Every structure is written in structure tokens, then in C-alpha cells.
Amino acid sequence: MEGVRILLVRHGETVWNQENRWQGQADVPLSDNGRDQSWRLARRLDAEKQSVQAIYTSDLIRAVDTAMIVGQSLGVEPTIETGWREMNIGTWSGLRTGEVIARHPEEWERLRAGEDLPRGGGETFAHFQGRLIDAARSLVARHPGQQVAVVTHGGAVRAFLLYCRGLAMSEFRKIDKIGNTGLSKVTLSADGSALIHYVNDTSHLDGVALSGETVDA
How far apart are CA 102 and CA 15, in angstroms? Predict the structure, then answer.
């Protein structure tokens, strides 16, 4: 079976991104800037004649709206796949990093020490990454030899790229942060091997200043 080429897209900016708040699975909509970013990406993909056979998106509204804008430009109706959701970070959602540390100091230190705890009572990294891998592998079966777009989240892109590089959870920081509407491309083969073509290409933003890049989730 041939591999599938995956265009990984982080959703456009939200107000919580601007405020550097952890979002997780909170359903925060795009900001006006996030919509502009999404249209810039859509126009880029159209200008590059990027042909995709399908667009899949997380069910969170910031990803769905980004996917709808891209899909409108490419003439493809997005399909919702809950496996591409951001990590469930429980009680961390809506907090800034300093607030997470202040309210959950023991949990934060144990995580920094390498324990894989459910973040804020939500999801462990292993569970989070596992469902992303399952979602990606399903694309190989559905779209062998084709190219698809997946609109998801910053933490999700990084967790999947960690798998593609064969790195352990402890090496997560070796994966560059993903900007809003950052574009990455991976070819995933049926045997699970992956080829990363590029990561976090934001050239379509034409140097427009980005905010909200402190946290992924």
C-alpha cells in the first residue's frame, strides 16, 4: 500500500492565543486576525495548485472554521475527525502558564521531571499521541498515494511530528513550536515510517507579526 501525503495545518489565531492562555479542548473561536491568517493560507494553497483529495479537521471550532476557509478555496468539503482534537488539559484550560504553575505546582514539577500525568486531570501525553497516530494511520488506508490536508492544533502537530521523528516524550522540546496556520508536510507510509518534508512554513503570512506563540494547546 502506498503512503499518504499529509498537509498538517495549525488553526488560525484565537483571542486566547493572543493572551497566551492554554486552550486544550475549550471551544474558542478564531479571532479576526485568525480568519485573515486562514484566508492567506487558503490563497497560498490555491496559488500553489495544491491538490488535496480530502480535508480532515478537529471538531473544535477554531479548527473547523480554518478548515472551512481552506476547503472553500480548494473546493473540498472538510470532514470532522475527533481524533485530531487538541490534548484535553482539564483544569489548565483558560490559564496562562504562570497560573498553571501557581495553582498546580506539584503536578507541574512531576511533569517536568518526566512523569506522564493527565494534564489538569485531562489526558496523558501517551493517550493524546496515541489517538493522533491512529487518526493518521487511518489516512494511509483511506488515501493511499493521495494528498490530504489535516487542520488541527499546535500541540497535536508537534506530538505527531515527535512520533514521525521516532523521539520519546522527553524530547518534545526538540520539535519546533508551530505558528497559527503554520503548514507542515509529512509522507506517512503503510509500515508506519514517515518522511518530514518541512515544518511550520508560515511564508503565506508575509511577515505579519504573530502573537500567542508561547503555548501550543
Answer: 23
Average pLDDT of the segment spanning 147-164: 98
CA distances from 87 to 142, 147, 154 (A): 24, 25, 10
State the Cα–Cα distance between residues 183 and 41, nearest whole angstrom: 8
Enzyme catalytic residues: 11, 86
- Domain architecture of the chain: domains with CATH: 4-89+123-205 (3.40.50.1240)
Residue 99's SS3 state is helix
Residues 111, 97 contacting (CB under 8 angstroms): no
Q: Can you give the pTM of this predicted structure?
A: 0.95
- SS3 label, residue 19: coil
State how beta strands 194-201 and 79-80 pair.
unpaired
The residue type at 190: A
